[in-house]
Design goal:
The chain is built from 14 helices and nine strands. With 429 residues, it is α+β, with helices and mostly antiparallel strands. The protein starts with a helix and ends with a strand.
């Protein structure tokens, strides 16, 4: 099954970035999200349709070292890689694409143009990283892009087609003796039937299905609209667990220490519901069932006090559910991450007898030596932040485990592999 490149990109375009972009552009978050939902398949389709152009391949390979993913909002404007690619894949049709998406989403033409640059930057950066991680040569890159042609048009939201964007039908792949259905800009079904190499447009569905044809005339459009709505809902209304392709997991699954042989399966806690957490009269903002609440509950139960030695504690880790590093960085956090580090500082100050260990983890993609180095650096970054806050004496160790305990295959989607990328903390003696 062909890799869906959009799975590599969508993590970079999560709700946090959409919120920042909306604020910066003066648009609504729903409008920005809607615009991105139309631009992303168009950009990927444009790359797929021009996969043999050297300029496209060079821009993808160059993006790997450009640092573009670390500052999508700032680096996307005036970036030569982006302008080169847009010129190569859209040419004089870029203006029509911007206008169509602006009309579709309700954002201004200027905002639509800025979002096109942003989406293109996220696409180049994500592809560049994938190419480096998987050691793809120009031929491999071209093949990867070519594989996208059969899926691009199906990912456009209801109300947009390649034709309505002024891009023709290069995203579709003809299938003999099968019907192809698009939604036009006025949401009316357009059916094209191919029989033995002869195409007929606007054919009634009962023209080739005499049994129940009248039912399909109204059922088929409804099914298509339902599928399009489902796709938009799943792709652009997810919790911020897809914060892109970051290195911190945004769940609070408690993980096992790899140093424990045959360790029992640890319990899993549920987070992502903001609440106030009581720390001996101090109110912390966190997630219900998240890291802070779970750690405080353990301390209040005297679980730490009654632990005789470190062996009792080392099975149980608490994942940071709101600490995320910028992609490719071990020294820069995503906005909003500092608050949870501050919460951990408050917990340690409230329980000065407590000691902890920081752990860093990656997924199975990429070189393991690099994964170990990155996870170690990120664990040490968290430790350094705690030292700076005055609780360094309570941090016994920071260790990077790389992908040693990752469970999701490297071939899985980025969203699926996100559960293996995390920063975590456990109590020590």
């Amino acid at each position: 099954m062909a890799l869906n490149i959009i799975d590599l990109i969508k993590g970079q375009l999560g709700s946090a970035l959409i919120s920042q972009a909306a604020s910066q552009l003066g648009e609504s978050e729903s409008g920005v999200s809607k615009a991105i939902s139309g631009l992303l398949p168009a950009v990927v389709g444009g790359l797929a349709n021009n996969a043999d152009q050297p300029g496209v391949i060079d821009s993808i390979t160059g993006a790997a070292s450009s640092g573009i993913l670390g500052n999508l909002l700032g680096a996307s404007s005036g970036n030569s890689l982006i302008s080169t690619v847009l010129s190569a894949i859209f040419g004089d049709k870029a203006g029509g694409l911007v206008n169509a998406v602006s009309t579709f989403s309700g954002v201004s033409n200027s905002s639509s143009h800025s979002l096109l640059n942003l989406v293109t930057g996220a696409t180049l950066g994500s592809l560049g990283k994938y190419v480096v991680d998987n050691h793809l040569d120009p031929s491999g890159i071209s093949s990867l892009l070519q594989e996208q042609k059969g899926i691009v048009s199906s990912l456009l939201p209801a109300g947009l087609t390649l034709a309505s964007l002024g891009l023709g039908n290069w995203g579709s792949v003809a299938t003999p003796d099968a019907e192809k259905v698009q939604l036009t800009s006025d949401d009316q079904p357009k059916v094209e039937v191919t029989r033995g190499g002869t195409s007929t447009t606007n054919v009634e569905t009962n023209d080739y299905n005499t049994d129940g044809g009248s039912i399909w005339k109204w059922l088929l459009p409804l099914l298509l609209l339902g599928l399009a709505g489902w796709f938009l809902w799943t792709q652009f209304n997810k919790p911020t667990t897809d914060s892109t392709t970051t290195t911190s997991d945004t769940t609070t699954e408690v993980i096992q220490d790899t140093a424990v042989a045959n360790a029992p399966t640890a319990a899993t806690t549920t987070a992502e519901s903001p609440t106030e957490i009581d720390l001996n009269g101090i109110k912390l903002k966190g997630n219900a069932g998240g890291m802070e609440e779970s750690m405080i509950a353990f301390l209040k139960s005297d679980g730490y006090k009654n632990a005789s030695d470190d062996a009792v504690l080392k099975d149980k880790w608490y994942n940071f559910d709101n600490v995320n590093f910028k992609m490719g960085s071990s020294t820069e956090l995503e906005p909003g991450s500092q608050e949870q580090i501050d919460n951990l500082v408050a917990i340690l100050k409230a329980y000065p007898e407590v000691k902890i260990k920081i752990g860093g983890y990656t997924d199975k993609t990429g070189d393991e030596a690099v994964n170990l180095k990155i996870s170690q650096s990120r664990a040490e970054f968290i430790k350094a932040a705690l030292v700076k806050a005055g609780v360094g004496a309570q941090v016994s160790e920071a260790e990077g485990y790389g992908s040693k305990i990752a469970t999701v295959p490297a071939s899985a989607s980025d969203a699926e592999r996100a559960k293996d990328r995390k920063m975590a903390v456990r109590f020590t003696k």
